[in-house]
Amino acid sequence: MKRLPVKRLAGLLICLPMAAGCGDLREAAGLTKKSPDEFAVTTKAPLVIPPDFNLRPPAPGAPPTNQADPSTNAQTALFNNQDPQAVARNMTGNYSMAEKLLLANAGVQNADPGVRTKLQSDIRAMQAADTSFTDRVLGAAPTPYTGQPVNADAEIGKRASKRQQAPKPKESGGWFDWF
Q1: Sign of the four-CA dihedral 167, 173, 174, 177
Q2: Residues of the chain with confidence (pLDDT) below 50
């Protein structure tokens, strides 16, 4: 009779490590690690827009006042709503009536009068830009801007003379010359 409890104890000792591998048993024993949820660590305040007391609710069934009709926007952008003949009559300058109508249909009256000064300032800013970084990256000597157009025939002649003066590579006489 004494052998029976020893067998049970031995069987229990053998099965206990196997049962410890089960996840449910580990959770029941409190052996699992419970890490905090990174999304639940800090709570975010809800986004609340403060009320605007000057804003009144729209009338029922009324179209929104802050949005224009897309087709109206497109027509306004593409076509001038002013009568071209009325605009042409009010134009000044030494133009014929046909030229004035052409300019009126093109929308000259909506052109920005300061566009030339804006373009000139942009061109001056581009000319004043430092090109030394680009020249260092490309390994080229900086070329000063002279304001003269490049003479293509002279440049071809310079390149041809450089090709003639270039030294020929030596033959190495190695194994790879056969291939």
Answers
A1: positive
A2: 1
